[in-house]
Design brief:
CATH superfamily of the largest domain: P-loop containing nucleotide triphosphate hydrolases
Number of strands: 11
Number of domains: 2
CATH topology of the largest domain: Rossmann fold
Shape: globular
CATH architecture of the largest domain: 3-Layer(aba) Sandwich
Oligomer: single chain
Bound molecules: adenosine-5'-triphosphate, magnesium ion
């Protein structure tokens, strides 16, 4: 007897993704299913190359089909890398009427961008730009097309962190061409606006400059656009997050109480405008001296941001130690995940990038934008 497609689908509905904790059919991870007699072929989609997970899933799919559909089925399972696109988000929440997001034209401008992720914090100097730069580079190292927009007009970081000294090109359509470095398409307010001059700008001037920036950049096709936000949760930040169709936000905090109070405000700001918080990153979680790498000093307190994430019921994305090498690599223009990819700090940052990617993917596939998402991270 030949096998039916429906039998295969119901067999695969028994396979639970070990990271997303949902079955492969509900997650819409099975594509191009072909069934002919005893021959079954399909593509299993993943957001990035992960051989270990791929072979585990292939094995589980084969077992499930043999058990629930046909023990003689002959399988041909291909792994396809496909970064999912952000779903349409619901209305932008209960923001004041005059601040509600206009649906166009910005959305059309970013129509080639699959996911827009804001990196924010309540407090200044906690490492947003460091996390944003390394997140962008790590995502590009995993095979994604990535852009980074530094929206901090008062204190842009991208020119230093990526050592950009040249001015970007302008297309014939008068659009700005991002500068490509360490695998990332970069645009910074600092490329065009003199920081000293911007210091005297008032809030509305800043927000209109940021909006203009987003419209007038030739981003092209991107899997992820990372926005490095200025510190705080004021009007400028609120306008930015409502101007762009955000997939979600990553909140960076250091472990001490003053930073955590502000991180809480950051989470509240995104909830207010219905932007999902993808999770909290704890930066400078502990100090590791270069000459004593086995020592850990919890100079800002222990696990503050981790505990805050638990309290606020948002995912904890990981911790980044305070290390001289992170500051040095940023200051010299090559983020640590590119400068020293096998260092423990770079590995930690790459794990954070993987978690962001997984959280975004499950959110997109689940269609649960705006709701709390729990994922289990494989060790
Ligand atoms: N984990 C770390 N270890 C060592 N130095 C770090 C770490 N994280 C950030 N720094 C350094 O701390 C300084 C502030 O970091 P960064 O510019 O990323 O913070 P920020 O939150 O973006 O600041 P701002 O609020 O001004 O935008 C930088 O010099 C950076 O290199
Ligand atoms: Mg910054």
């Amino acid at each position: 007897m030949s096998i039916h497609k429906e039998q295969i689908k119901s067999a695969l509905a028994h396979v639970v993704h070990p990271v997303y904790e949902k079955d492969l059919i509900s997650l819409d991870l099975i594509q191009d299913l072909i069934v002919q007699d005893k021959y079954v072929s399909f593509t299993l989609e993943m957001p990035r190359k992960d051989d270990e997970l791929a072979s585990l899933l292939q094995k589980q799919c084969t077992q499930a089909i043999h058990k629930f559909a046909d023990k003689d089925a002959v399988l041909d399972i291909t792994i396809g890398i496909n970064i999912s696109r952000q779903r349409e988000l619901e209305g932008k929440g209960d923001a004041p009427e005059n601040q509600k997001k206009a649906p166009e034209p910005q959305e059309q401008i970013l129509s080639g961008v699959k996911n827009v992720i804001a990196v924010a914090s309540g407090k200044g100097g906690v490492g947003k730009s460091t996390v944003a730069a390394n997140l962008a580079v790590a995502l590009s190292q995993s095979g994604a097309k990535v852009g980074l927009l530094d929206t901090d007009i008062y204190g842009p970081s991208v020119p230093t962190m990526f050592n950009v000294t040249e001015r970007p090109d302008i297309t014939t359509k008068k659009k700005l061409v991002p500068i490509f470095k360490h695998g990332v398409h970069l645009v910074s307010m600092g490329f065009l606006v003199d920081t000293d001059q911007a210091m005297i700008w008032r809030g509305p001037m800043v927000t209109s400059a940021v909006k203009q920036f987003m419209q007038e950049v030739e981003w092209g096709e991107l899997d992820y656009l990372i926005l490095d936000l200025p510190p705080g949760t004021g009007d400028i930040q609120l306008t930015i997050v409502q101007t762009v169709p955000l997939t979600g936000a990553v909140i960076v905090s250091t472990p001490q109480t003053v930073a955590l109070d502000d991180a809480r405000k950051g989470v509240a700001m995104f909830s207010k405008v219905n932007v999902p918080v993808l999770g909290i990153v704890e930066n400078m979680s502990h100090f590791i001296p270069d000459d004593q790498p086995e020592k850990k000093y919890y100079i800002f307190g222990k696990h503050g941001a981790r505990n805050l994430a638990r309290k606020l019921e948002v995912p904890f994305l990981g911790e980044v130690p305070l290390r001289e090498q992170i500051r040095e690599t940023s200051d010299s223009g090559t983020p640590i995940v590119a400068a020293d990819p096998t260092s423990p700090a770079a590995i930690g940052l790459k794990e954070i990038a993987n978690r962001v990617q997984q959280t975004v993917d499950i959110q997109n596939r689940d269609g649960q934008s705006g709701e709390k998402i729990e994922i289990t991270i494989r060790p």
